[in-house]
Backbone:
């Protein structure tokens, strides 16, 4: 039972990071029906930007407390990723809104490769190690081990998800987003600026991805130019699992996917008699994606929508 609870905790931590990235996918898709496959690489840019800011702050303010250094670096990464995603939407996607669906999809894949290449040029191929800025003492609760970083991830993710829900349902910008998602032309007639709303969705999604990138960096202690590819695909799977276009579904899908992946990785050796090991954990995300697309394409909380002529 202790091992099972430990796996659940690890799954919740991993799923929290997936959920933050999945929210960016689902916000953009819900408004403009675009799957931004470059979103995982925005997460990567956030992590590597934080790495650069860690080094800069260590040089100009060596006496700064570790937790404050992380906060400042994360805030800087959010700004950089927000501006980056705004430029991506403004330059690459805006002109393709009325194009055939294949055009923005190919553009998104190309943008992903471009970001990875630029990151490799700027930060190099080497893995960047997370500096010793946060407490590393392991907390043991009745046999279940958790670190202060993992606690921070769970708490911060919960606060962000609640804040985003309030933003969408209780603010003027949130109402504008929901109106634009329903019908951009009618929303424009009612005084909403669809371009501003879509850009805001890209920026907010990028900021969440930046936080997820720093979390990933802190939890796994390394970052690289290629780190966003697999988490990006898994976050997309989480969005599809929950019902892409549904914010609550993205949150649920991210957490469920993290738990499924960790439990699968933890027990795959036992279930297969030692034939497969935990290094096969990535297959569970894609098995989930195949099953969802086959059995329930609209996702757990999505609604089936009829095709319109």
Residues:
């Amino acid at each position: 039972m202790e091992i099972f609870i430990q796996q659940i905790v690890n799954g919740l931590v991993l799923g929290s990071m997936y959920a933050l990235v999945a929210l960016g996918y689902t916000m953009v898709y819900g408004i403009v029906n675009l799957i931004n496959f470059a979103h995982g690489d925005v997460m990567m840019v956030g992590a590597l930007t934080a790495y650069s800011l860690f080094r800069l702050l260590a040089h100009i303010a060596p006496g700064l407390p570790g937790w404050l250094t992380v906060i400042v670096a994360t805030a800087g990464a959010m700004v950089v990723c927000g501006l980056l995603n705004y430029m991506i939407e403004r330059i690459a996607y805006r002109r393709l809104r009325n194009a055939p669906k294949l055009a923005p999809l190919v553009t998104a894949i190309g943008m992903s490769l471009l970001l990875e290449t630029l990151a490799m040029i700027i930060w190099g191929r080497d893995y960047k190690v997370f500096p010793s800025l946060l407490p590393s003492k392991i907390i043991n609760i009745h046999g279940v081990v958790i670190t202060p970083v993992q606690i921070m991830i769970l708490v911060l993710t919960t606060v962000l998800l609640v804040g985003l829900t309030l933003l969408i349902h209780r603010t003027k910008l949130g109402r504008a987003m929901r109106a634009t998602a329903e019908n951009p032309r009618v929303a424009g007639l009612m005084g909403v600026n669809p371009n501003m709303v879509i850009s805001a969705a890209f920026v907010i999604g990028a900021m969440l991805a930046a936080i997820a990138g720093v979390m990933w960096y802190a939890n796994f202690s390394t970052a690289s130019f290629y780190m966003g590819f697999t988490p990006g695909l898994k976050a997309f799977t989480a969005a599809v699992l929950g019902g892409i276009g549904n914010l609550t579904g993205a949150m649920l899908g991210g957490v469920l996917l993290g738990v499924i992946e960790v439990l699968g990785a933890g027990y795959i050796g036992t279930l297969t008699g030692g034939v497969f090991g935990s290094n096969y954990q990535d297959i569970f995300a894609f098995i989930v994606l195949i099953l969802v697309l086959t059995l329930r394409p609209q996702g757990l909380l999505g609604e089936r929508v009829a095709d319109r002529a």
User: Anything to note?
Assistant: The radius of gyration is 20 Å.
